[in-house]
Design goal:
Distance between the termini: 54 Å
Structural class: alpha/beta
Shape: globular
Number of helices: 11
CATH topology: Rossmann fold
Order of helices and strands: EEHEHEHEHHEHEHEHHEEHH
Number of domains: 1
Number of strands: 10
CATH class: Alpha Beta
CATH architecture: 3-Layer(aba) Sandwich
Strand content: 5-15%
Helix content: 25-40%
Bound molecules: thiamine diphosphate, magnesium ion
CATH superfamily: Thiamin diphosphate (ThDP)-binding fold, Pyr/PP domains
Strand order of the largest sheet: 4-3-5-6-8-7-9-10
Largest sheet: 8 strands, mixed
Radius of gyration: 20 Å
Length: 313
């Protein structure tokens, strides 16, 4: 195609590994994270993708938004698929020249794929596992997963007379990853794009199995405005609700303070848990009555415990 006025040949932007034309919602945190991850990993990468929004929105047959080789099979399968790909790369003598990424949502990671992910980690496969953590099975209509936070309203944890939303605590997937003695384990928030990029780069520079869990607000599932995605992704960190940590060889090497900067630098103010919860319809029921106030105090306690555990202030 050419631009007749300037006589310039039009070329689609070649710089992105994940291209426009996907069907993710406006303001989707996952798709922002996915583009950051794919662009950072670059074209010399093979991706195996679990079932979920990251797959469904990017690869509607017969199209794909991915420029790199990409494969989807069953929900629980991307980890063993990556093992097979690594075996093939080994035969070709390419195992040190190609990045193998395994990506999936929290449902795929915390619940449905966990056994096979554990096997991949146990085998010490040279892969980077990325979890797009949007805290529920969003693609199928906002059902709770074991990543869903306490008191969140999902379609399987509706608040009512006898409950105030999910009564389970979010599974400590970081602790589970660390228990596998992985050389690299970290969380990031899509609200801090540079940190996501830095952590993907860092992870890919290390040999062996790596785990990066990225906090990704979901516009319809969390009931937020598309314009609020980045703010919510940041206030989750600044309130202590979602700790941002980085472990190399089991040692905590970096963490983000409750203000979003480095926790090593002395921080004075943090965002209140109400400020984080309020823009999200999944927590709306907590702002109705006195009982809600008691529940918010419980969530504040969870955030405070994170701050205490990781010394985030
Ligand atoms: C074994 C299996 N169980 C359930 C489903 C239905 N299913 C497809 S996508 C999906 C939700 C995925 O949730 P998550 O992994 O958190 O990704 P998200 O869509 O939230 O990004 C479910 C339950 C399936 N395809 N296969
Ligand atoms: Mg999810």
């Amino acid at each position: 195609m050419s631009n007749t006025k300037n006589n310039i040949k039009y070329k689609a932007p070649l710089s992105h590994q994940l291209n426009p034309g996907h069907s993710a919602c406006a303001g989707c945190g996952m798709i922002i994270a996915a583009r950051l991850v794919m662009d950072t990993a670059g074209p010399n990468t093979i991706v195996t993708n679990a079932t979920g929004c990251s797959e469904v929105t990017t690869t509607q047959y017969p199209m794909t938004s991915f420029k790199m080789p990409w494969i989807h099979s069953l929900f629980e399968n991307p980890a063993p698929m990556a093992s097979g790909i690594l075996a093939a790369l080994k035969v070709k003598g390419l195992e040190d020249k190609v990045n193998v990424l395994v990506v999936g949502g929290d449902g795929a990671t915390f619940d449905i794929g966990i056994g096979l992910i554990s096997g991949m980690w146990e085998r010490g496969e040279n892969t980077l596992y990325i979890c797009y953590d949007n805290e529920a099975y969003q693609n199928t209509g906002y059902q709770s997963s074991s990543s869903t936070p306490f008191d969140a309203n999902t379609t399987t944890t509706p608040p009512g007379k006898k409950s105030s939303g999910s009564q389970q605590l979010k599974k400590d997937m970081i602790g589970i990853a660390l228990a596998h003695n992985l050389p690299y384990v970290a969380t990031a928030s899509v609200g801090n794009t540079l940190d996501v990029v830095a952590k993907v780069k860092k992870a890919l520079s290390i040999k062996g199995p790596k785990y990066l869990q990225i906090y990704c607000p979901c516009v319809p599932g969390w009931g937020i405005e598309p314009k609020d995605t980045m703010n919510v992704a940041r206030s989750a960190v600044q309130s202590g609700f979602y700790p941002i940590v980085e472990y190399i060889d089991g040692e905590l090497v970096s963490k983000k303070s409750a203000q979003g900067g480095s926790a090593l630098g002395g921080v004075t103010k943090k965002v209140s848990i109400e400020e984080f919860l309020k823009p999200q319809k999944r927590f709306k029921h907590l702002f109705k009555d006195e009982n809600g106030k008691l529940e918010i105090a419980k969530i504040q306690k969870i955030a405070d415990e994170n701050i205490e555990k990781y010394k985030l202030i």
